[in-house]
Amino acid sequence: MEALTTSVIVNLTEYPGTEPEVSWILSLDSADITVEEAIAELRALAWMAGQKHPTPNSVRSRQGIHDWGGSSSFAEFVLEMSAGGLGGLSATAIDAGVRDVLSRFRGRARSDAWGDLISEEDALRVARSRVATQYSVAAEDLVVERAEANARDQSHSFRFRHTDGRSFGADVGIVKESPSCMKVWREEPGTTG
What we know:
This protein is α+β, with helices and mostly antiparallel strands. The protein contains 3 helices and 8 strands, in the order ββαββααββββ.
């Protein structure tokens, strides 16, 4: 079965199944990649630290068909990696490695056009919604601390402060002329990002 939509998610987490510290999200129209190839691409990230053993990780994939008035197939690939098992890798190196892998997925997508930079208001709405969903917080309790637009990358980056003291962030860009959250993260009170 060829999936009409493909989602690739990379979660940096302390333990399997716990709330991720950082998530990178890529949603594509049909990608020309097999399940085995997708899993191999994601597993390669677990070896980024150049260690003898991979960073503790888990890779899941699922495929299915949505048939609610119109039929559509989907594929989803999720990599969870241990935040504590990355050795001395900097946040910048991890981000660059993940972006490199996700760009290879984008390179194999069909009909995946990037539109123009969206308004800050639309990007903020998408960012708040994704942070609220990912971390189970009320969107209205997220106060914008910083907002930056990047015309070259056609994206917006936001940093929020929650009423409980935690900080969250989100990067939003355009995929197929629609705002899409591409990265979300959280920080506990007392940490800096």
